[in-house]
Amino acid sequence: MFLTSITTPIPCRCMSIPPPLPLLMVIQAMTTATVPTIGEPGKLDEVSRTVTVEMSDTMRFSPENLEVKHGETLRLVVKNTGKIHHELTLGTIDDLKAHAALMLKHPNMAHKDPNMVQVEPGASGEIVWKFSQAGTIDFACLQPGHYDAGMKGKVAVLH
Ligand SMILES: [Cu+2]
Questions:
Q1: Are the beta carbons of 22 and 48 closer than 8 angstroms?
Q2: What band does 16 get if pLDDT is binned at 50, 70 and 90?
Q3: CA–centroid distance, residue 53 to ligand 1 (Å)
Q4: Residues, Cβ < 5 Å to ion ligand 1
Q5: 33 φ, ψ to 5°?
Q6: Do the strands 152-158 and 65-69 form a parallel or antiparallel pair, or are they unpaired?
Q7: Ligand 1 midpoint to CA 150 (Å)
Q8: What CATH homologous superfamily does 2-158 map to?
Q9: Which of 72, 82, 99, 158 counts the highest number of beta carbons within 10 A?
């Protein structure tokens, strides 16, 4: 009796397979969830303004508050005036917080999307973004620890 019960095949094994989501899938899910709600990648020939934002090792963006018109395409020039790596990522506040926490756990995680730019010390990069969603969009530096140190800002998308 004992032997039979052991060799009886278990009909359903679904309880025994809880695989954790691979990191890549989590990132992809976050990316696809982020992009539609904050606007969309812009086209260079639709740029109406160029705005420069500086990033420094004091963990601040300057300026840290931007205003754009609803539907405007901005060329955001992002300058790193510091001596360490910084980045600017546009996103919803929830996604940025989640992403910042993920970067703390996986400091060498590579990420690259149209809504972000990573900039070497002394260099500059750019994001061309169409603010097709009215409201407030957040941005942050997601290098490990930088968000928590206050490296964040807001874009007010006005009607
Ligand atoms: Cu930073």
A1: no
A2: very low
A3: 13
A4: 86, 141, 143, 146, 151
A5: -75, -30
A6: parallel
A7: 9
A8: Cupredoxins -  blue copper proteins (2.60.40.420)
A9: 99
